[in-house]
Amino acid sequence: MGKTADLTTVQKMTIDTLKKEGKTQKVIAKEVGCSQSSVSKHINREAKGRKRCGRKECTSKRDKRALERIVKQNRFKNVGEIHKEWTVAGVSASRSTTHRRMQDMGFSCRIPRVKPLLNKRQRQKRLAWAQDKKDWTAAEWSKVMFSDESKFCISFGNQGPRVWRKTGEAQNPRCLKSSVKFPQSVMVWGAMSSAAVGPLCFLRSRVNAAVYQEVLEHFMLPAADQLYGGDDFIFQHDLAPAHSAKSTSTWFKDHGVPLLDWPANSPDLNPIENLWGIVKRKMRDARPNNAEELKATIKATWALITPEECNRLVDSMPRRIAAAIQAKGAATKY
Description:
- By secondary structure, the chain is an alpha/beta fold.
- It has helices spanning 9-20, 25-32, 36-48, 61-73, 79-88, 95-104, 120-133, 138-141, 209-228, 241-244, 246-255, 271-282, 291-303, 307-314, 317-326; strands at residues 108-110, 114-116, 144-150, 163-165, 177-179, 187-192, 201-203, 234-236.
- α1 (9-20) runs antiparallel to α2 (25-32), α7 (120-133) packs across α15 and α12 (271-282) packs antiparallel against α14.
- The chain is elongated, with a radius of gyration of 31 Å.
- The protein starts with 8 loop residues before the first helix and ends in an 8-residue tail after the last helix.
């Protein structure tokens, strides 16, 4: 005869029925074909309303509240560090128990989203810019050539520390990793419109005003011919030192290229940033062994970008602007 846990659903239903008929446990055990103790335990369990058996939790509600406070104090700690703090607080639990309690609370270990670090003045300028551009149509945005530099590494695996957050907390300021622009030694320059992408330029040295003007001369102008033909267009770039240098401004005036005014530290407003992300995701399974193989992989992946992808990204500009206005100039999810 099996234990109580081995009783089938039919046996349990039979025990309940015979119990209601007033049969004794001895008779019920004989008819069902199990031990009398199994019948007794099943009846007692039903009487007490117990839904499950097993060891009682070793942590109280107070312990759980303490754990949640520890996690929220610094969401970038790993389980070992959180467990150590919880133990110091007087809770006796294993590392795996700590992890389970965090999961029970809804915390999951995720790669933090990155947002630019904005000061008050930058937020105000972003808001003013967004309000100025809120009535631009899709046709007007299609005349903009978006450009940017991006760094590509042979290994894409190092994404930094993870963060503990619950569902819906992806935009919580305590769950975000601030990004600050630093000069990059190796970059790729690219440009896009709503119709297609332009040619890539692999930069061999640090980008100063002179290097950037060479890129404009030999890559931006050909890209403009390729993307717009003889039609008018507006060029967009950020406020990096090489871009905002006086000599660079003079270059644009001499070549008759109009510029789109752009708020500082605003990669979330630039659709080409999302395009770089698409390229890097498509390259995730690539394993280049050296810089030349990496360049070849980037070129091949860039060539696979479709007009539909470009059009969809540029069409998102009204939504980006609306989000910036709603956030009062703060960084957005884009």
